[in-house]
Amino acid sequence: MDLRQIQTFVAVAELGTVTSAAEHLRIAQPALSRRIAELEQEFGLKLFNRVGRRLLVSGEGQQLLNDCRRLLADALAIRERAQLLRRADAGILKVAASSFLIEAVFPSFLGLYAQRYPDVQVKLIDIVGNDVLHLLERGELHLAQVLDRAITSEAQHFARYPLQFTDMLAACHPRHRLGKGGEVDIGELANQALLQVTDDFMIRRMFDAACRVAGFEPNLLLESRAPHALLALAEAGHGVAIIPCAMRTHHYRLKVERITYKGRPLREPLALMSDKRRPLPAYGVTFCEMFAAYVRAVFPITKPRAGRSVPAAAGVAKVNTRQERL
Fold it and tell me: How far is CA 164 from CA 22, 27, 294, 297, 299, in A?
């Protein structure tokens, strides 16, 4: 048994076909099939069942799959540790973050970090949801920006670096009669047409859960992975965009209100996460410290504000009649 055989087994299990796995590993299909056959012979087990053109992991293979993933992650950690022993101020740092922070925080921060570590290449990955945790566990990421509630009691192998709170905001046309004094109770959103990001964003799931606690299901007009599409529609009077305060809105004419529930802001703490089983290099620890300080200094990116005046000649669509009556 060697690591290439284990890597091949995991790739076929996750991708489902020899063709896809061969392309992913950049090897010929006959060589890939040979590795699987050799591993099955060594284990004395059938690892896959063929169903049509797909290969499905057998019961025995399923019981070995997580062990093989851990083996690959450990091997990657050993290689990275060896690199750290050679050089502590140069390397690659793979960081996953939401599109909100990638746009609003990283452009300026990366310049500051590069002044400290010019030989460290920070690779950003725009990804959200539970996939982030799997990538951390498999060693494909060093750090991930998440909402703090992602770190459950069962996830004790993750280290946490607190950042800042992110408030939920409601953004709408400047003439929309929504909220008062920079705040809007979540109950006022029950009859509004809402514009939201897709439910793989944890902030979306957090808001939907808060709506259920408040006793209603949100009236969803649009969900999109392009947050600025939500702001464009809100600016034109086509609903209320639900966004985090980590999002930039200065290019739009909008009224922005902080969402509250029973007088308290609807907010969640942000954090950076890493896998304790794969210690960060020194430049990774410094990244966390610098990033946390920077986020605390610049947050919130968007604050509640009253709508700016919109001249009639500007061509901005009027808020629909139903919204004007609210």
Answer: 43, 45, 10, 9, 7
User: How many structural domains are present in the chain?
Assistant: 3
**Residues 196-244: tens digit of each pLDDT:** 999 888 888 889 999 999 999 999 999 998 889 999 999 999 999 999 9
264 CB contacts (<8 Å, ≥6 apart)?
Answer: none
What gap in Å lies between CA 151 and CA 163, rounded to an integer?
Answer: 14
- Answer yes or no: pTM beyond 0.90: no
80 found inside a domain: no
Cα–chain-centroid distance for residue 227?
13
The whole-angstrom distance between residue 180's C-alpha and the CA centroid of its chain comes to: 32
Residues with Cβ within 8 Å of 4's Cβ and at least 6 positions away in sequence, in order, are 35
The answer to whether residue 249 is domain-embedded is: yes
CATH at residue 130: 3.40.190.10
Query: Are 95 and 146 found together in one domain?
Result: yes
| Cis bond before residue 244 (omega within 30° of 0) | no
Which DSSP category does 305 fall into?
Answer: B
Q: Is 31 helix (H, G, I), strand (E, B) or coil?
A: helix
Tell whether 230 and 308 lie within a shared domain: yes
Specify the pLDDT at position 1: 74
How many Å separate Cα 52 from the centre of its chain? 35
162/148 Cα distance (integer angstroms): 8
Q: Collapse the DSSP code of 207 into the 3-class scheme (helix H, G, I; strand E, B; otherwise coil) and give the result.
A: helix
Residue 73, in any domain of the structure: no
CATH code at 246? 3.40.190.290
Pairing type for strands 194-197 and 220-224 reads parallel
Where in the sequence is the domain holding 60, given as residue range(s)? 3-66
User: Does residue 259 sit in the same domain as residue 309?
Assistant: yes
159 located within any domain: yes
The answer to whether residues 120 and 186 belong to one domain is no
Band (pLDDT 50/70/90 cuts) for residue 180 is confident
